[in-house]
Fold this sequence. Notes:
By secondary structure, this protein is an all-beta fold. It has strands at about 5, 10-15, 20-25, 30-40, 45-50, 60, 65-70, 75-80, 90-100, 105-110, 115-119.
Amino acid sequence: xxxxxxxxxxxxxxxxxxxxxxxxxxxxxxxxxxxxxxxxxxxxxxxxxxxxxxxxxxxxxxxxxxxxxxxxxxxxxxxxxxxxxxxxxxxxxxxxxxxxxxxxxxxxxxxxxxxxxxx
Length: 119
């Protein structure tokens, strides 16, 4: 089973930036795609961005132009650079990995990292 560990959350003023990281660890797996989801207080978890192996990333409309997702395949790590942050970006950011192990494909989630944007 793949374990995901996120880092990089924190408190930032509106207009500021943060960079989130998510590292996947385990054995006998190959990452197909990694992504980020956002859960605002009292709301459901929503898609932010995803990057697939050898493909262009895709973004939610709310993230387009402000956030950049990137990956280091050698390190099984995905990053989310968040610029021009807004108070509505506040919430917990979860990393997700779609990976293959043997003949099967699995999904794994990280524990989440808190981002708070003050106005």
